[in-house]
Amino acid sequence: MSKADVYGLRVVALLEAFKGAVVVIAGVGLFSLLHHNARQVAERLVRHMHLDPAKHYPQVFIDAITELNDVKLWWLAAAAGAYATVRFAEAWGLWYDRAWAEWLAAVSGGIYIPFELYELGRGVNALRLITFGCNVLVVAVMVHALRQRRVAVVA
């Protein structure tokens, strides 16, 4: 495997580890709402971000947080933990050049492409383009790595 191939796998590994870390931070943030007045915390957060709580999207956020109860928070925390564990395992596997991690990254990245195309069809913006482009690049790097691995086995 060339240095460029190893570099590509390492970049994707760091991206996956970053995604796992973001979910852990979000999960801890949600978990910290346990036994607290979630509505008050959400309204404070909306104001801190200089958003108008009376507007539609901030109100949707506040309402969604208000609907959370302790059981839902535990389930969300468990889901966040499971997702982060998969992302960290994938990152470890990619960093150490494991075929299973390449397959996992290719499949998990490829699953999102139809949804991202749908969103781009609804309207193009910078975030959607960047997300789509990064995801296609990750899948391309993984497919290339898997092909290289196959060629090495055949040769």
Description:
The protein is mostly helical and 155 residues long. The protein is built from six helices and no strands. It is 84% helix and 0% strand.
* Dominant shape: elongated
Mean of all residue-level pLDDT scores: 88
Counting helices, strands and paired strands, the structural category is: mainly alpha
Strand content: under 5%
- Care to count the β-strands? 0
Summarize the structure.
The chain is mainly alpha-helical.
List keywords for this structure.
single chain; 155 residues; mainly alpha; 0% strand
Topology:
Blueprint: H1 3-31, H2 38-48, H3 56-66, H4 70-95, H5 99-122, H6 126-154
Helix pairs in contact: 1-4, 1-6, 2-3, 4-5, 5-6
